[in-house]
Amino acid sequence: MAGRRAEGVVSDLRDITLRSAPALLLVVLGEFVLPHDEPVWSATLMRALADLDVEPTAARKAIQRTTERGVVAAEKDGRRVRITLTDAGRRLLNAGGERVFGFTGESRDWDGRWLALTLTVPETHRHLRHHLRTRLTWAGLGSPTAGLWVTPHTARADEVAHIVDDLGLSDLAFSHVGAFGPVGDERRMVEQAWDLDDLAGHYADFLHRFRRLRADDARAAFRQRVELVQAWRRFPYLDPALPARLSRPTWIGVEAAGFLHHTRSAWAPGSDEHWARLGQPVT
Asked: Are 56 and 45 in contact (CB under 8 A)?
């Protein structure tokens, strides 16, 4: 199970894992456009992406793709183009923000119950195996053994049901919510369900990379804030946020979450200042 989560993601989740022009644009929209909920010129977004080393052609394609996905709407105003978040775009960014910035790296007040999903995809549906594995993984579930998926987050039952139903596999699935039984070892199940050593290594790389950075001016604060958030966005989807009694004694995910919030806040004034400058007319 350990290496499976790195094999790829469905299209709407690629923007979380890959440092691409669409990925960076979504971060810019979430960090700087959504809070003000006001239209922005496409030229402002182009300048923002240029500051992030995105080539003009790639930047234009990213804006076009984001428009086609319905996240933003584009409206011509003379020779300029006004970009506005759609209702669907606001919902997408708000939901993502809640999960990404509300993530603490651990579960608190756990009631001891698990959500268990049993689902073996037959050969006749094998083309769906990758999509199922990917979407359940990104919903925070782990697989300790073939055909079994588990998570301590029982509140995600509706999300899991939607995934299974969306793939047309409901007739093949069974689920249960309850405490761990008398057979087996709970900690061993956790170790088999998630590759925590690999995840800890990614956290360590994240901390090493961003602890070395200093925002010497407003532009640097803008660049680094966007890069920080983009690099962080995958962790709330890959880390199962285990209850403290099932996790490592000092889980690095908790440290990394604290670092994210502190550093993002520290870079906020400078990055907001630079964003305001990007919106000013070019003379």
From this structure: no
Are the C-beta atoms of residues 260 and 253 closer than 8 Å to each other? no
Return the structure tokens found at 195. Answer: 């590759």
pLDDT tens per residue, range 10-66: 334 445 556 789 999 999 999 999 999 899 999 999 999 999 999 999 999 999 999
Q: Domains in the chain: how many in total? A: 2
Residue 87 maps to a domain: yes
CATH of the domain at 128: 3.30.1390
Give the Cα-Cα-Cα angle 50, 58, 34 (nearest 5 degrees): 65
Q: Which domain holds residue 212?
A: 1-109+194-283
Compute φ and ψ for 114, nearest 5 degrees: -120, 150
pTM: 0.85
Per the CB < 8 A criterion, the answer to whether 278 and 48 are in contact is yes
Q: Which two tokens stand for residue 39?
A: 């239209």
d(CA 235, CA 7): 16
Question: Please, what is the angle between helix 196-211 and helix 252-278, to 10°?
Answer: 40
Report the greatest alpha carbon distance in the chain: 73
Who's near 17: CB < 8 A, 6+ residues apart?
9, 234
Phi first, then psi, for residue 176 (nearest 5°) are -150, 140
184 part of a folded domain: no
Q: Where are the alpha helices (DSSP H) in 8-81?
A: 11-17, 21-28, 42-51, 56-68
CB 87 within 8 A of CB 70: no
Distant-in-sequence, close-in-space partners of 180: CB < 8 Å, separation ≥ 6 = 112, 114, 186, 189
What is the per-residue pLDDT across 136-165, written as a single tens digit (0 to 9) for each? 988 889 999 999 999 999 999 999 999 999
